[in-house]
Predict the 3D structure of the following.
Amino acid sequence: MKKKSILFIHHSPSENTKKLSTLVEKKVDTITSDLNLKTLNMIEANTSSFKEIDGLIIGTTENFGYMSGLTKDFFDRCYDGLKDKTEGLPIIYYVRAGLDGEGCKVALNKILIGLRWRQVLPPLILKGSWKKDYLKQLEKFVLTFTSGIELGIY
Ligand SMILES: Cc1cc2nc3c(=O)[nH]c(=O)nc-3n(C[C@H](O)[C@H](O)[C@H](O)COP(=O)(O)O)c2cc1C
């Protein structure tokens, strides 16, 4: 059977957010053998990155009450090219937010509805001052998603 593939696109501008994206990249690779994970910085991602993928993970920060500029830039560049070609794509996303993450969540949810992607788990909003526990929360969140993709649940 063909291995399933997950695309992970992220913008990780700080030490803490680098820890988050590195965790996703490393954990998924070590725990799952029947899955390919393709990791790209938000700025490298484009519509061709979505060829033959079975699931998507987005990681972003909240800035100025919205998704980070590079995450917005990704959607600015790729929305039209992805629309009507990626309907039903299972997705999860996490947001690192120094304050509340709400503006980013509202904006992303609108875009996901526009693209008709399927958000299969509620977003993980890692808000407030940095806590080590965020890494555990993210690990659980991502592995729930990747096992669901592997088992064909999502
Ligand atoms: C220019 C700028 C604007 C920011 N705006 C927000 C914001 O509107 N809401 C929020 O929750 N956090 C905001 N933050 C905090 C970032 O979300 C946070 O610094 C980022 O996620 C990195 O997390 P870290 O500081 O733990 O490394 C902002 C940070 C910067 C640098």
The CA atoms of residues 58 and 93 lie 4 Å apart.
